[in-house]
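User: I'm putting together notes for a lab meeting next week and I want to include a structural view of one of the chains we've been expressing. I don't have a solved structure, so I'd like a prediction I can at least talk through. The sequence is below, exactly as it appears in our construct file.
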Amino acid sequence: MKAKAVSVLKDLVSIDGVSGFEKPVADYISSRLSRLSVGVRRDVMGNVLASLRLGNGEPSLKLMFCAHMDEVGLMVKGVEPDGFIRFEKVGVIPDAFLPRTPVRIKGINGTIGTRPGYLMEGSDKPHSARDMYVDVGVCSSKEISDLGIEVGDPISFATAFSPTGNPDRVIAKAVDDRAGCAALLLLAELLSCQDFSGYPSSAEVVLAFTAQEEVGCRGAVAAAAAVRPDCAFVLDTVPSGDTPDASMTKDINARLGGGVVIPVMSGGVSMGEIMAEPIKRLLRDVADKKGILYQLAILPVAATDSSAIKTSGEGVPVGTIGIPRRYAHSPVELVDLNDIISATQLALGLTERLLEGVKLR
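Assistant: Thanks for the context. Below is the predicted structure for the 361-residue chain, given as structure tokens.
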């Protein structure tokens, strides 16, 4: 499974899919799903919804697993007469991550420019995104127009997928949340080839690959309204606190390679989520019985599609399966492949347990 996880993740992170422009990612996911015995459709928001029926007879449960396809990035805002491109951020990206970052617009490579280092003085303040620009190597706004670049075009980070000194850990852009998408694609393969006829319950399982999570969980709102699940689980990356500049007790108590993260509380006031006790017990029970490593954590600033799904309709029992990653919302996010595989295994175990007829309320 690890070799397949590497292959799928590498494919996914190499595709550009800034929020609102997820179609290339959706095309890849739809293509992989089409090889399996699943029904696939796409909605007006750009979500990809794959449906499988497990067990015998009419489904007594509708279960949804969710991962978002979009990545943080930039958008062309204007062009200077000398060809430098001004931009707006799409999603939450700290300004400090942007200077001298390689980017790509419509397949054209460039970099984010700032004042030359040898002209900077100790008193110089850090640049804000408003003062930065994208340089694609041209000399005029006409050349930009000739390249087909215009206001509203998405700008993606152009970081290559790279191995690290640890063979189980890789660096890439868009790990958030292509890692979750990779886990769901692995889950789709496992569900489509496993025999569930011996279970006492039957279920319709919907795998939702959602759009525009980074700008307000918009795709998840539409997906939850359309699917109306009895229960849902969101697979998303979450920040880790295992670097020298963070504290595992004061900041974020999650680390790479420590297994999936079960966020008992996450996000702020408006987009926050406190996990219901029955869901937390179910996640822990399945993980314990399957021998899957997990970490209980509180994520003070992280919000996921769980918030949007939980409050849809009359309310939905929702759990989050977190995949820890370092350097959140940057061009170089770092993830451990074992945590992606653990997320897939936990999702499979949850499906099996729910088919056994466990009660969630």
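A couple of points you could mention at the meeting. Residues 74-157 form a domain with the Elongation Factor Tu (Ef-tu); domain 3 fold (CATH 2.40.30.40). The mean pLDDT is 93.

User: Perfect, that's what I needed.
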